[in-house]
Specification:
This protein has 163 residues and is mainly α. It is built from seven helices and two strands; from the N terminus they run αβαβααααα. It has a two-stranded parallel sheet with strand order 1-2. Strand 1, helix 2 and strand 2 form a beta-alpha-beta unit. The longest helix is centred in the C-terminal third of the chain and has 19 residues, at 144-162. 26% of the residues are buried.
Length: 163
């Protein structure tokens, strides 16, 4: 992260705002925020730095729409149960594993097609589609990590406006 911030700080055409994505993994959001702030200070980054911390994994934000998961794999009318966590449980689970399994199940395939759908490349492609389709006005707004992101963006924009 420090190297990336240094690269941004060295660019001639610097951005107005920098978003730094870090999952919490085993650390809490506060520890990640501190690490991001320290790294920005060490590299003398003057632009507002917005921490993007989706609690355990970014995939937590992608588990909230069963319909979008089914559409991402091309089976919008699928009926196989996906066993997704409730909104309240989402940020407490191993979301990456749950999403990977749900995408494979939603595809309703077997044999080689199922193996292909289980690859890291397929997972990355499906995740990209889900991120592009993320309904930022939908259920994700109820997650504490999303609300924190929105608050951080408001703070950064406010800082830009007052500069």
């Amino acid at each position: 992260m420090t190297r990336q911030l240094a690269a941004v700080a060295a660019e001639a055409d610097r951005p107005n705002m920098i978003f730094v994505h870090r999952d919490t993994d085993r650390e809490g959001p506060a520890a990640r925020r501190t690490k991001i702030a320290v790294a920005a200070a060490e590299k003398s980054v003057l632009e507002p730095v917005v921490p993007v911390i989706p609690v355990r994994h970014l995939e937590a934000w992608l588990l909230l729409s069963e319909g979008e998961i089914r559409r991402a794999v091309g089976r919008p009318r699928g009926s196989v149960p996906l066993s997704l966590p409730s909104l309240r449980e989402t940020e407490e689970k191993d979301c990456k594993t749950i999403l990977r399994r749900a995408l494979v199940e939603a595809g309703e395939t077997s044999g080689r097609r199922r193996q292909k759908a289980s690859t890291d490349a397929a997972f990355s492609a499906y995740r990209k589609v889900l991120l592009e389709r993320l309904d930022i006005d939908g259920p994700v707004r109820e997650l504490p990590s999303w609300r924190a992101l929105e608050a951080d963006i408001r703070t950064a924009v406010s800082r830009l406006m007052s500069a």
